[in-house]
Amino acid sequence: MTLPHNSLAGGIGRRSLMAGAGLGVLGAAAPVVRRAAAADPLTLTVWSWVPNMQKETALYEQANPGVTVNVVDVGQGFPHYAKIEDALRAGSGGPDVAQIEFDMIATFLQLKAFADLAPYGASKFSRDYVPWAWQQVTRGDHVYALPWDSGPIGQVYRKDILDAHGMQPAGTWGEFADQALKMHKDTPNTLLTNATFDQGAWTTALLWQAGWKPFTVDGDTIGIDVSNAVSSRFAAYWQKLLDAGAVDAKPGFVTEWYEAFDKGRYAIWIVGAWGPVFLQQFAKSSSGKWRAAPIPQLAAGGHVCANWGGSTLAVLKQSQHRSEAAKLATWLLHNPTSTRMFATDQYLFPTSLALLNDKAFLETPYPFYGNQPVNEVFAAAAHDVNTSFQWSPFQGYVQSQMGIELDAAANGRGTLQQAFDRLQKKFVKYANEQGFTVKT
Amino acid sequence: MFDFVTATPTQAPPRHRGHRLRRRLVPYLFLLPFMVLFVLVLIVPLLLALDLSLYRDTLARGQIFVGLANYFSILDDSSLWDGLAHVVAFGVVQVPIMLAFALGLAVLLDSGVLWGRRLFRIAFFLPYAVPSVIGALIWAYMYGPSFGLFSSIAHAAGVRAPDFLSGRMMLVSLGNVVTWEYTGYNMIILYAALQAVPRDVVEASWICGATPWQTALRIRIPLIGQALVLTAVFSIIGTLQLFNEPEMFKAIAPDVIGDHYTPNLYAYTLAFTDQQVNASAALSFVLGAIVAVVSYIFMLATSRRAAGAG
Lengths: 440, 310
Fold this sequence. Notes:
The structure holds 2 protein chains of 2 kinds. By secondary structure, chain A is of the alpha/beta class. Chain A has helices at about 10-35, 55-65, 80-90, 105-110, 130-135, 160-165, 175-185, 200-210, 230-245, 255-260, 275-280, 320-335, 335-345, 355, 360, 375-385, 395-410, 415-435, and strands spanning about 40-45, 65-70, 95-100, 140, 140-145, 145, 155-160, 190-195, 215-220, 220-225, 265-270, 290-295, 310-315, 435-440. Chain A is globular and about 70 Å long. Chain A starts with 10 loop residues before the first helix and ends with a strand. Chain B is mostly helical. Chains A and B meet through helix 1, helix 3, helix 10 and helix 17 of A and strand 1 and helix 6 of B.
């Protein structure tokens, strides 16, 4: 399961960074010994925070004698990216293959970090991955990464709570708002949901669904349209619910928030496809009471979805073994054995169409969800993800500022609309400082 | 080998040049391990950061030399001054309270009226042994507004706990964590200084009929003035560089902490999430200069007063 990179803020991220650095030192020393034994020795380094990835790389090593794959966890999210940026600045020292979340691809493309995988045969995979994911890893004929896991969004909900209120999961955002207001009126201590505005990626996913196109990047020219009609509608919608006290705006992925879900304060979690398995770990006491449903639509009968989280594997241009690294990345993310293993052993929600249409995968029952095959819900959502969304080439800044400004506004410092206006100004200023030609 | 220690100029016959040179070199040889590390991990990074602060690394135009432009824009950045206002307000209240506690505990331990002195000494010092990140995480959990320890207790008692993580309470909540963490550390320094107060002076005060309270107030505490100044300077520097606690609290109160609650937090955000390493380097130098100036002024003021009193 890959979390969006700002989701585990603070201590956890930093501790895993230190642990990762320690492992790195040990891990780097080991292959030297092994090298002598192999006929055509080669060590490929992968930087990733996916747990137990050695399972898959061990299979690759078996199939490719002489190749040693060294998986190093250098931290989750920002610490990981900061180290890659350092390696780019230094011109060496980076891994051969790196985990890159979808939202960070544009940032690293701006730094010209990735090798084009098209010459190594990646172009022919264009129909093997869900369309939005393929669109995110390609630019024209160039393939800069291969899609790994994803998080098409949906509603994970407490069936018992909705039942008690005589509700079904909302089909439209209009219904969702009515439910929130009604539930708040009937049971003030149980709310329909918590709006995690501190998570820039959560907000982005909902805006993505609504057709928000904040950035258009063309070389060193950038269009910035953050505060527009889409964001205004979005701001007005949530502002109304916040002002009525019908939803909370507490920070996500902290003890208080986990407990709130475990103790039944919220009926619905709007989350990516990695959410259902993640929830099982912290809401144990409510096992069996949860279900999953599609994300509400803007218009009744619509089929528009968006994505929150998920990663890719990219080959760094500075790698001394680009061709071998491309082969490894391709095997890990295209070979049926490996892709299935990631989905069933590590619970990474797949981007591979073969898996998304696979009966065994779709029909797996989840006892935590009353034996509902929740993968079906999210697999259907994956096909509906809006393909036209573009990230900024400085997503670290965008993500962090969105979290700060919108969370402050949602907690009483001004309005969401004012926050979007401030974000627009901040991003324009930042882009100018970074030497872009800005169009607004 | 140790002749340079015992030899005095009067008894030493004229020596070889080599000897004299060696005598001069030996202390530096002893200093060498320190100097190597000092240069490698302090001077060299400082120079690199200084170099970094004169450029602007841009995504679209590459690296540009900008001279002092980063410094001007940081001095013009309200985020820095907001953060500085927080740490100053924090320090003015928290440092005196913490040092008063530390001094009180040190005097109590030193006075000998307590039994189990060793146990208490370790107990008071223990919070400092907990890594500050862990300490802050534990406190963050206890402060939790809905399910935290304090709100649960308050709830059981039928009252409302204050919102420890609100904008108004945040400095108090952080101050409490820092006080919990560092009182014991400062106490140990002050206690060691108290132990070093000459016994004859203390005994003289007893013979003259001073009460223990008077001895503490008139004899012991004035005699450890230097140690007090030292702990104060350490605390001032620590306050201006406040980072771990607000960084840990950021996850649970992002609306209050944001990205620039303290200057160091802002420097960290600039460097590691905003990809503005150059601005971060400039800010670090500005903050370093402020720390140096404030510490210097404090030392000057206290030494003046000491001189005046003497």
